[in-house]
């Protein structure tokens, strides 16, 4: 029913079904994961009036599972990209996987999907910054940084006439920086 | 061999094979797409020494196809997330789909995957700001960008001994770029 894809890795399409309405994907080496895509395979839709809440679960320093709500998938929005880097120091939230005691391995995190009534999903608030739409402002941020960089680098710019003789020092034409 | 997923929509796993080594997914209503995930299904790997270049193709105002290189998938990195919103006003780049004349519909864009030698892929430069999956954090992301920038800029580096006389052209000492 569900697939899970860590950006840069092979897709997973066979979650562990830990309860009738709960599915778990393992994320090995989770410290090196930035983005996770969770999607419905398109084979079986949710029953009418139901959808899935998507959780990220990772072991805290004492090996206890910390669960954070990332967001949702539904028949109307059957896939979502989440950014999980940056969540690892966050606080846990309420979650429906409580009694399961998934075995925690220090380097392995989980994506958990819980099938629930849509009206229940509507009352849950995902952690901030997990939805990838926040990448927009981020691009603007780097654009600003690069503008700053050009201002910074060009403050060191010299013309050949001003150069002190040192034939081995490498110089970069300023217009290359601008074009980039 | 390939899957394609528009964030928020159902996954596609059946591209149109337009040549022995070229695959195309249609992206209907592309103006409302932010992120696209391209991934190998895990069934058939690339032949040894080969990988896939991933292109975004959209119709310009006159209905001509504009192709932009987004990035790559390989056996070692079998999936990638790309941000295509923001690319739609960009310039086209060289691409290997030239002779195919894919029919252009105003609201439909394409993802094209071309299977090529890895050494050819290494010489191609994707459009800026398309890759999402390599984004670690503001710092790492900008560090990567700046590394790329330094590699790019230093390919233009000259020493004073190599300079053609043009006293008005501004130059930036390369170590300024490195220190930054």
Automatic annotation (TrEMBL), chains A, B:
GO cellular component: cytosol; nucleus
Transmembrane segments: none
Keywords: Cytoplasm, Nucleus, Protein transport, Transport
Location of the Hikeshi-like C-terminal domain: 136-180
Keyword flag Protein transport: yes
Signal sequence range: none
One GO MF term: Hsp70 protein binding
Localization, UniProt: Cytoplasm; Cytoplasm, Cytosol; Nucleus
Record-annotated Hikeshi-like N-terminal domain positions: 6-130
UniProt keyword Cytoplasm present: yes
UniProt GO BP: cellular response to heat; protein import into nucleus
Function: Acts as a specific nuclear import carrier for HSP70 proteins following heat-shock stress: acts by mediating the nucleoporin-dependent translocation of ATP-bound HSP70 proteins into the nucleus. HSP70 proteins import is required to protect cells from heat shock damages. Does not translocate ADP-bound HSP70 proteins into the nucleus.
Stated family: Belongs to the OPI10 family.
Quaternary context: Forms an asymmetric homodimer; required for binding and nuclear import of HSP70 proteins. Interacts with ATP-bound HSP70 proteins.
Protein name, entry field: Protein Hikeshi
Organism (species): Furnarius figulus
């Amino acid at each position: 029913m569900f697939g899970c894809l860590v950006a840069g890795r092979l897709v997973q399409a066979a979650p562990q079904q830990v309860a009738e309405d709960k599915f778990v994907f393992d994320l090995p080496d989770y410290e090196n994961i930035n983005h996770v895509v969770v999607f419905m395979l398109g084979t079986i839709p949710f029953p009418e009036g139901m959808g899935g809440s998507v959780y990220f679960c990772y072991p805290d320093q004492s090996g206890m599972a910390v669960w954070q709500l990332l967001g949702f998938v539904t028949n109307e929005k059957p896939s979502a990209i989440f950014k999980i880097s940056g969540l690892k120091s966050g606080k846990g939230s309420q979650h429906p996987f409580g009694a399961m005691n998934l075995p925690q391995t220090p380097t392995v995190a989980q994506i958990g999907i819980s099938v629930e009534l849509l009206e229940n999903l509507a009352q849950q608030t995902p952690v901030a910054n997990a939805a990838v739409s926040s990448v927009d402002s981020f691009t603007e941020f780097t654009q600003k940084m690069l503008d700053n960089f050009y201002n910074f680098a060009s403050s060191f710019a010299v013309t050949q006439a001003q150069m002190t003789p040192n034939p081995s020092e490498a110089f970069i034409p300023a217009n290359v920086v601008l074009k980039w």
